Amino acid sequence: MLNYIIRRILFMVPTVVGITFVVFLLLALSPGGIGAALTASAGGQQEASKAAILQAYLEDRYGLNDPVLVQYGRWLHRISPVKFGVRDQLTPAGERLRAPKEIPDPPLVSWVGGPLDMAEIRAAAVAAPAIDVNAVDGVTAEGRQRAYRKAANDALTARSRYLAARRAFESTLVDYANAAGRAELLDAKGKIVTARLEGEEPDRANAAFAKVEAAAATVRESWRSASVQREILAAAFAEKPFPESGFTVIPGVLWVGPPDLGTAFSKSRPVTDLISNALPVTLLLNLVAFPIIYLIAIPSGVLASARAGSWFDKLSGATYVALWSIPTVWAGVLAIGYLANQQYLGLFPVSGLHDRAAESWTFLPGTQVDGTWQMGWMLDLLWHMVLPVACLVYGGFAVLSKQTRAAMLDNFNADYVRTAKAKGVARQDVVIHHVFRNSLLPLITMFVTVFPATLAGSVVIERIFSVPGMGSLIIDAISQRDRELILANTFMIACVNLVALLLADILYAVADPRVSYE
Known about the structure:
Elements: H1 2-28, H2 33-41, H3 48-62, H4 68-79, E1 82-84, E2 89-90, E3 96-97, H5 118-127, H6 141-180, H7 209-238, E4 247-250, E5 254-256, E6 263-264, E7 269-270, H8 271-306, H9 311-324, H10 328-340, E8 366-367, E9 373-374, H11 376-412, H12 415-422, H13 427-438, H14 440-450, H15 453-456, H16 459-464, H17 470-479, H18 483-511
Antiparallel strand pairs: 1-5, 2-3, 4-5, 6-7, 8-9
């Protein structure tokens, strides 16, 4: 069994990689990518400077200019516990800071004055240090943190100006190509293909060359400024203003640390924080709903199989199928419209899991500080959960009850059951200890395949009742194309599914001694 478990765990790694890679490709190759989603969420009317800052943020965070395989490899590196390079640093808010990336070269470097003199760039950065050692708090932890924040802001601003200058330079190149009548220099969308101009000397007689020359000078200056600010930021990062993550194996080369799920750009918060807030809500609903489903459906399925053809079998089967036929959306809307609406019954709250004033209440029902009696935080939570849980459970009765009934009816006709009856074994013992135990395998399969779905949450239920769980979080991530949040949920659910399947194999062997993996 141990060898089998080890093999299965090893096979999980390429499976998870394959699942996440497919999702990553779908996100990366979708029209517009994640940058288009941000622009759309902002209304598409941003100023050029804000658009440049946005582009700088996206490129710094996700490396969108790199090939898809490089981007995916970078994401795998972040979630892997074994990491290469300089250790990350953690802010008190949980944000991970990494060594700043290099400033990319502009297109047509020869047209903008050639490569930069990196010795001069480093000298300029040394002349404007991120930390003033002569300042009173310059060498304290707070001083280093303030210096890093300032350097980070200055570097982002300088990089955004450089990107805006690059954009303007490429725009003038389009005019240059049109003035020269060279349509082959443009792609299908009318953008310049700079690779087709590589190695050519600029045509100074071109009518648009004056604009190209002015834009090239601006690119040169902004490129130099961004490179200097990047060196200043790198120096501030090297001062280690924040605690480092993980522990070092080989200094500057190899270190081990916790997986980094990234930062959700749509919410500007670490993905781990978002999941840690939403997951307990979803688990709470399902941990209440699942026992209700199993405690009602399995006993009724056992009783229906033991009394096949009786009135109980027919009535329970018809009732469960009728409930299963009711759409969840319709049930939720009716529950809110009649059971929660104050114009009708008004028995339950409409949305959420707590009253707005619940945080100031005592945990259990009782008299509050102001002398009024309140139901308390716990009872208020249970009261809010009634309608969402009811909509979660009713559809599961039919599936689990019918599966239990069918599995047991198959075993009632087995030879070992007839032998047990012939030996005079009590009917109750035959049903419970013989038939039901041998019918557990299909139930185990259902449990381990349904359980991972609890982590994804019920999108419909959480949307209808405004429950801030995993379902709502995933839908928001998909609508905003939040790559980090979608990939984190995909990674988590894939891992849980694979572990659940492994657990099913182990439970098969426990429930049925005939099952062996040796």
